[in-house]
Predict the structure.
Amino acid sequence: MQTDKTCPDDAPAQGADATNRVAEDREGAGDEAATTPPDPEQGTETDASDADATAPAEEQPEDPATTIVALNVALEAAQEEIESLNDRALRATAEVENVRKRADRSVANAHKFALEKFTGDLLPVIDSFERALEAALALASENDAAGSTVEGIELSLRLMNETLGRHGVEAIDPVGEPFNPSYHEAMSMVPNPDAEPGSVLQVVQKGYTLNERLVRPARVLVAKAPE
């Protein structure tokens, strides 16, 4: 009876063949899995579920009446703001115009009354000429030679008054006129039955105005009814 014996040298070769076959089987399974197409229905269901999960909630339409009310409120607020801005603009314009007018008046008055101080300083000179004329007239009544002196004083006084008149200076000589405290200064009350009570009887010193502004009041005696 013969017994089969395996050669010890054949065992390693058989083990290597088995290992190679296992590796080939694994590679074949991987290639089959890689080449197998995905199921279209399964992919569609997954995408649909994802889209449903991420889709925003549908907004509810607003009530038209509510929208109209909100727009009316916004319109009224805008109109009030416009009216407020217009009012502020008008006030600012009026203020600028008032400032301009005040500035114009100030400039005009500066030119108009620039001679006020000079006129006040010149009035005592005119008073002296008038007193000199009165004295010369009294002297001329007694001495005919004083006539030329009277003429010279009258000419000088007339030229001075004309010059002042060209610059807006006017004399106040209110004999017979009602007493006016705005332009007259009462020195005394004199009883006089022939004069209207409260009227000017005599001018002690003439007054003067510059462009209708009082420079010096006229000093006067005022009539009153006899007691």
Remarks:
- The chain has a mean pLDDT of 79.
